[in-house]
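If your schedule permits, I should be very grateful for your opinion on a structural question. The matter concerns a single protein, recorded as an amino acid sequence and a row of backbone structure tokens. Could you please explain, in whatever detail you think fit, how the structure tokens follow from the sequence? I set the record out below, with my sincere thanks for your time.

——
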Amino acid sequence: MERLEQVFEELDDKPKGKTCRAMKGLIEEGSEILQEDGEESILDAGIIVAAQKVEHYEIASYSSVRTFAHLLGQNRAAELLQTTLDEESETNELLNRLAESTINPEAVRETELAIAGSNR
């Protein structure tokens, strides 16, 4: 948020806030998973998916705005936006590593056990 405020200060402009319905929907989707009952590892996998959807949306948004800033010759704004973009990408990679190394394999095991149990 602080970086965005810096960008607007440097552009001598003020942000005009508007609710993003897409992001709101992604957050609601993640909140719904938190309310569900089920195997913890399967719910954790769903939470990671929801979090990555948010990260991917943010990455796309910051990437686009950074590119516009660069094309407009607003190099300092582009730098600030790139820093945020890098952080969002790092968070996404962290979620990938967590999902691939621990959460998803556990969710698959739980799913296989549930399927095996229902076939008996």
